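Reopening this one. Same input as before:
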Amino acid sequence: MPRVVPAVNRALDILELFLGRPQLSAREVAERLDLPRTTVHELLVTLVERSYLISVPGQPVRYRLGMPVFQLGAAFAGRLDLVREAQGVTRDVAAACDEAVHVAVRDGADVIYLVKVDSTHPVRMVSGVGLRLPAHCTAVGKILLSDLDPAGLDAVLEKGVLAGMTRDSITDPDRLRAHLEGVRAEGVATDVGESDSAMRCVAAAIRDHSGAAIAAMSLSAPVIRWTSQTQATWTELVREGAATVSARMGYSAPPR
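Same output, byte for byte:
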């Protein structure tokens, strides 16, 4: 078996210490990794020489991440493909519930469906990849709208009238804003007959490395199969599925 190089391991350990920490001193690095200060000093000098770390101006023994770290992260992020990463997870979630599972993105005031895995039931949701629907009428749309800041949400809602798809659609902007506050707090959104009176849906956000909601995963089922028990089970399935795709897109969930 190839030998692991201890010095490389230690250098990577140092870089990983900076995740979530803007600056660290040489002493803090030594204490956190339980390494001799002379070893830490040599590693820090090497990382600074290669610009992976930069000495904080005016504080030569404090360090922050350098540009090459960003360049490596950007190169990795550029290779990530949302559709490719989501397809397998979507299939797994659909197999676990035998209901329709989608992944969609927001385009202005609408959502566009990028991935779909259907159920095997004869009664199922009629939808397809490329379908565009009003965001405020769908679970995927509402979870994505809930991630916007107030100014961003205002910009979307002020573009026009909130047309309804069913009698249960939320068409009043103030009511929608209040509804989205609950969605934001809960971390999931539901569509209770708001886009199709015969269907129910639950969705969770897919996040990228920055934490932004770039897409959403949803599970949809006819009202005849939607009970309080199935809703609870399916909500957890969607949460887990969205979290799995998020991790593949570089998202690291904050500790609870």
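So the earlier flakiness isn't reproducible anymore. For the record, The first strand starts at residue 24 and ends at 25.
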